[in-house]
User: Which sequence fits this backbone?
């Protein structure tokens, strides 16, 4: 019923409490006992001020307790066993001894319930010193302990955390030794005779349950200070003499229960009520689930590796390099260095990785020029493609060459230009009918290729044909793994639209949507706002294509992490158009470059993306397949190297521009974050 974490926490807390109690009883035991009892009273008195907010109320509770017995001896004892009757009778005494139990509680309602403790109960103590006839001081210490069975009736008279309990105790004796000392004459350590094997007693007490869990969490934990009084009724510990023991007890109990979260009342905005004034129905075809981060990091220091798509895309009807690319004057080109991109990042990080990625990509001609200038033996081929017009394609390539020759002083013999009607891997396929304008614009481009190793990505000791990536150290704000993702499986086919309403414990509602696809996400930072943590009831309201309404409920807890000290590593791989299988070069990149960087018990987060060409639902599934394929390659590589404990978080975002690492339609990718 309970997690290993909860049981381990219980054990650690109990061990710590035992150590604290041992320390307390060494110095001023009566004062410490009074402090514990005072704490119980204070907690009970303040319980009435607790807010009356609905909390999950499990019927069954299990746990442990630890306490201190203050044993008070009365009556008389003189015959210690059949072999020893001391010369002077002992009458009074006290003692502090430990108590520990495992417990069960049954609470069918807020007022009445039952308790059962199975306990180790030590009733030992020391009698007041007496004087023997020889004028010698004499002392007697007992070590009397029991296994106790303690059923009790539990009553919470105010229907809140304060409760009282009472019931019988059945104590089975397990130790009965004593130590008798008479100064300078005798010391005897033996067992007492005539001890009752089973003793019937009674107890009554009070306590308060202090919740340690979120109010709407299914798994509830409480810490319960308690105090009680035990009397042996009409039976003493022994069948002879009049020795009696009464006990005051104070301690703490740690309890665990599991219940069903109750829905927090949701205030639906009037606009939504007006939009769907239809009966609520349950549709089994819709499955609403949530994937939320354990903590919400606001930012993270990351080392990002940006792949370079060595392609310049041209506008329709023009062979001039588009002005979206960073084109430097000859004077500025002479001072440009690729390393400048790492130092002069855009100040506006609102778009996050997309802004930084595009800042790198739009400098593709300057990166190429700087690398060729630095490495004098390198050469490139510029392949221009223009639909059914290879002459125009070659002119596009010539214009790129002219920029590199004039602005970066590259020897023109190192650059070859070619004209084609289609690129080698075209976006527009034969028979295609949809979004041809976007596809044809994507095929209107100049591809930069090279066989020079200085320009290329080295994988496994050989060149891949892909340009060497650019590395940037930066502060990643509002990272994607801090987002709450809503999966509404079946929504595309069944619903016209759907909206998500999040309601906090304070009754404050936030509305997101409307959405039309099977998946949506919201930044955890946005949900929390200024709060460091929060518990939210979630209601999904969907309007079906038939005009009816569907409601699904869930729950999420979020906690903000203001500072993340560890550095993250982010790498991107590019997929060919409409493909989810990584090509051989990038598969080797994942195996040879990425896998060695993953540590045992680390976390790998994979996000898949697509461009905006094609159906939105299809692209969402394609992005998920790309993420799964990336995970499959890495898992196989990790298994081959024997690394264990690596956890994967794999997502697909399709063509969602709000989550995309790129803002242009031509780049389709998956990227990997490691922690």
Assistant:
């Amino acid at each position: 019923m309970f997690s290993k974490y909860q049981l381990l926490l219980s054990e650690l807390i109990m061990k710590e409490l035992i150590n604290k109690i041992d320390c307390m009883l060494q110095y001023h035991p009566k004062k410490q006992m009074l402090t514990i009892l005072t704490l119980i009273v204070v907690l009970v008195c303040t319980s009435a001020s607790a807010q009356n907010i609905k909390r999950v109320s499990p019927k069954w509770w299990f746990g442990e307790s630890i306490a201190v017995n203050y044993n008070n001896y009365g009556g008389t004892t003189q015959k210690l066993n059949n072999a020893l009757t001391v010369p002077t009778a002992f009458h009074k005494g006290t003692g502090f001894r430990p108590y520990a139990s495992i417990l069960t509680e049954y609470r069918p309602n807020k007022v009445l319930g039952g308790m059962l403790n199975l306990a180790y109960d030590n009733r030992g103590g020391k009698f007041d010193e007496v004087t023997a006839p020889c004028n010698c001081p004499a002392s007697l210490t007992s070590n009397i302990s029991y296994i106790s069975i303690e059923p009790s009736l539990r009553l919470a008279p105010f229907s809140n955390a304060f409760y009282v309990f009472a019931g019988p105790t059945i104590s089975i004796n397990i130790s009965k030794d004593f130590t008798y000392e008479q100064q300078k004459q005798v010391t005897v350590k033996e067992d007492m005779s005539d001890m009752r094997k089973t003793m019937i007693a009674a107890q009554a007490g009070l306590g308060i349950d202090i919740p340690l869990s979120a109010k709407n969490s299914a798994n509830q934990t409480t810490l319960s200070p308690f105090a009680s009084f035990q009397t042996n009724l009409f039976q003493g510990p022994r069948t002879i003499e009049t020795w009696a023991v009464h006990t005051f007890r104070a301690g703490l109990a740690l309890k665990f229960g599991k219940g069903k979260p109750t829905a927090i009342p949701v205030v639906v905005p009037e606009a939504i009520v007006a939009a769907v004034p239809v009966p609520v129905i349950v549709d089994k075809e819709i499955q609403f689930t949530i994937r939320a981060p354990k903590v919400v990091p606001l930012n993270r220091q990351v080392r990002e590796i940006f792949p370079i798509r060595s392609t310049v895309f041209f506008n329709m009807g023009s062979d001039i390099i588009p002005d979206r690319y960073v084109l430097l004057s000859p004077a500025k080109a002479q001072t440009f260095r690729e390393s400048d991109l790492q130092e002069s990042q855009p100040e506006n990080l609102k778009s996050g990785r997309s802004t930084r990625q595009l800042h790198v990509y739009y400098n593709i001609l300057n990166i190429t020029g700087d690398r060729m200038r630095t490495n004098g033996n390198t050469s490139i081929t510029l392949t221009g493609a223009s639909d059914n017009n290879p002459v125009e394609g070659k002119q596009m390539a010539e214009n790129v060459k002219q920029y590199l020759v004039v602005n970066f002083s590259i020897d023109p013999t190192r650059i070859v230009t070619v004209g084609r009607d289609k690129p080698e891997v075209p976006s527009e396929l034969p028979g295609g009918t949809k979004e041809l304008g976007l596809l044809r614009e994507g095929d209107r481009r100049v591809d930069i290729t090279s066989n020079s190793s200085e320009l290329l990505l080295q994988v496994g000791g050989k060149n891949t044909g892909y340009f060497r990536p650019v590395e940037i150290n930066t502060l990643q704000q509002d990272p994607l793994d801090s987002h709450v993702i809503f999966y509404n499986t079946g929504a595309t086919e069944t619903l016209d639209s759907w909206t998500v309403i999040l309601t906090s414990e304070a009754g404050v509602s936030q509305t997101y949507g409307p959405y039309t696809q099977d998946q949506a996400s919201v930044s955890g930072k946005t949900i929390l706002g200024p709060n460091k943590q929060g518990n939210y009831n979630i209601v999904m309201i969907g309007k079906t294509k038939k005009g009816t309404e569907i409601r699904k409920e869930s729950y999420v807890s979020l906690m903000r992490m203001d500072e993340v000290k560890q550095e993250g590593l982010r790498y991107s791989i590019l997929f060919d158009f409409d493909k989810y299988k990584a090509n051989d070069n990038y598969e080797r990149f994942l195996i040879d470059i990425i896998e060695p960087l993953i540590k045992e018990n680390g976390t790998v987060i994979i996000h898949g993306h697509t461009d905006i060409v094609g159906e939105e639902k299809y692209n969402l599934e394609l992005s998920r397949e790309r993420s799964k394929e990336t995970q499959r390659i890495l898992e196989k590589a990790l298994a081959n190297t024997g690394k264990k404990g690596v956890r994967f978080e794999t997502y697909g975002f399709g063509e969602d521009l709000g989550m995309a690492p790129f803002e242009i339609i031509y780049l389709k990718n998956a990227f990997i974050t490691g922690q």
Residues 309 and 361 are 7 Å apart (CA to CA). The two ends are 31 Å apart (CA to CA). The domain at 308-468 is CATH 3.30.1330.60 (60s Ribosomal Protein L30; Chain: A;). The chain has a mean pLDDT of 78.
